[in-house]
Amino acid sequence: MTPIDFDDESHHNPIMSPSDAFRRLQAGHNRFKHSQIIASPTITKEELRKLAHRQRPFAVVVTCSDSRVPPELLFDLSFGDLFVIRVAGNILDGAEIGSIEYALRELDTPLVVILGHERCGAVMTAVKKYGEGTNVDTSPYMDDFLNNIHPAVLRAQMTGYEDQALIEETCRWNVIYAMKDLVQRSSIIQEKISKGKAKIIGGKIFLEDGHINWYEQDFNKTVSEDSKDRGH
What we know:
- It is a single chain.
- The protein has helices spanning about 20-35, 45-55, 70-75, 95-105, 120-130, 140-155, 165-185, 185-195; strands at about 60-65, 80-85, 110-115, 200-205, 210-215.
- By secondary structure, it is of the alpha/beta class.
- It has one domain: Carbonic anhydrase (Beta-carbonic Anhydrase, Chain A, 3-Layer(aba) Sandwich), CATH 3.40.1050.
- Strands 2-1-3-4-5 form a five-stranded mixed sheet, with helices on both faces.
- It is globular.
């Protein structure tokens, strides 16, 4: 089999392994960091016609709704490349998990990325509400996603961090807990991972330079929990 050139976007998402999918994502991110963008911001009518009949995204990206973290730009990709799920705090609930299951089962997408970011407003609010006991003005709908972040706040508090360091540690644990939760709650995803047909990766973006700390998961063990974020 001819090796895939992950800096060549002339092919359109051939079937690839989870590891190859992650390497392609990393290659795009490296281009973004070094301002070597090759993905076109436009698309031809012929390419649109092809995508209208079939999609084959090579990665699911679950990330925050924050306007500063658009996945297609962060990974120098374009139409048809990513199956994107965006929600405040990059949390996973029933609809998000069902969407991931759809991509893995119906579209044969081999990679799932849970992507958090520093200075996350949703996490900041959760830390104020649950970690500091501040009287935060929220709504029942806002509490739906804040409650998902609560366990990460409690875990981050065990480090003894305070203020911004506590927020950033909560961001990290929020990603790690989402990775664990996804596997525990979905038998479809469990089966895909156990057969080597899918992989879950976590990451946290640093906004000022676009760096990403990656957290990998060994299905037979656990998420790598010991890798600390920069600055901790």
